[in-house]
Specification:
Helices cover about 40% and strands about 20% of the residues. The chain is globular. It binds S-adenosylmethionine and ligand LAOBWLLU.
């Protein structure tokens, strides 16, 4: 078995299609559709956050009344625009990705949606940016929410920093923690190109499951969304 085109770990592509067509696409903002459509013809466009998982993220952002957020891994901006649309007018997102060319694909849609003012895009690797934020003690516990969808081998490094930046009761979400379902495959059924990230996901999933600083839910949506609530 391999990950299906929509990066869903559901039993069948038909079920993924059913969910998307009945309850996701009809409610999706036009500007988000624009980015999804642009991804279709952009190299590695399949990396955009799954829209059903995005829908869950939007509800969580609103339930939290999230105002200050961090995004690690922007790509063409689907999850970034979704976050910007889900926080208040005076909300702020620090969004970090070294690939500005990809960000510029989604930027016209972000502008069209009227939410560019909420975004502080930083063209950089994320670790030095998070370390810089941590140098200022006023950033401790200053963020309501963080979304991580970048280099999978660094997820634990991001976690050690974000756990300090996000407030008690705030959320950190990690994408791709089921890696196309391969985390549950026997080793011999895993394709060569999936092995490294699968190992990263297995190690991260084990570590987060025993981290008492967070309550967790590994939600089987999209490619696996690990939702962490900072407990103390
Ligand atoms: C899966 S894509 C992100 C998808 C995005 N959330 C969306 O909805 O379109 C992964 C992104 O992580 C970025 N990335 C890779 N290594 C990174 C790092 N060290 N720091 C920040 N971003 C990184 C890549 O440039 C890429 O754009
Ligand atoms: O196929 C991928 C690859 C990535 C990926 C690989 C290396 C990096 O430094 C960052 C990201 O991410 C993906 C992803 O988030 C997704 O939803 C589907 C596929 C991939």
């Amino acid at each position: 078995m391999t990950a299906n085109k929509n990066a869903s770990i559901l039993q069948t592509e038909d079920l993924t299609k059913y969910i998307l067509e009945t309850s996701v696409y009809p409610r999706e903002a036009e500007t988000l559709k624009d980015i999804r459509n642009a991804n279709e013809s952009y190299p590695m466009g399949f990396m955009g956050t799954a829209p059903d998982a995005g829908q869950l993220m939007a509800i969580l952002l609103k339930l939290l009344n999230a105002k200050k957020t961090i995004e690690v891994g922007v790509f063409t901006g689907y999850s970034l625009l979704l976050t910007a649309l889900s926080i208040p007018h005076d909300g702020k997102i620090i969004a970090v990705d070294p690939d500005r060319k990809a960000y510029e694909i989604g930027l016209p849609s972000i502008k069209k949606a009227g939410v560019e003012h909420k975004i502080d895009y930083i063209e950089s690797q994320a670790l030095p940016v998070l370390d810089k934020l941590l140098e200022n003690p006023s950033n401790d516990g200053n963020f309501d929410f963080a979304f991580v969808d970048a280099d999978k081998h660094n997820y634990w490094n991001y976690h050690e920093r974000l756990i300090k930046l996000v407030k008690i009761g705030g959320l950190i979400i990690y994408d791709n923690t089921l890696w196309g379902g391969t985390v549950a495959f026997p080793e011999e059924a895993v394709l060569d190109h999936q092995r490294k990230v699968r190992q990263d996901a297995l190690a991260f999933n084990e570590a987060i499951a025993s981290d008492t600083r967070v309550e967790i839910c590994l939600a089987s949506i999209g490619d696996g969304f690990t939702i962490c609530r900072r407990a103390h």
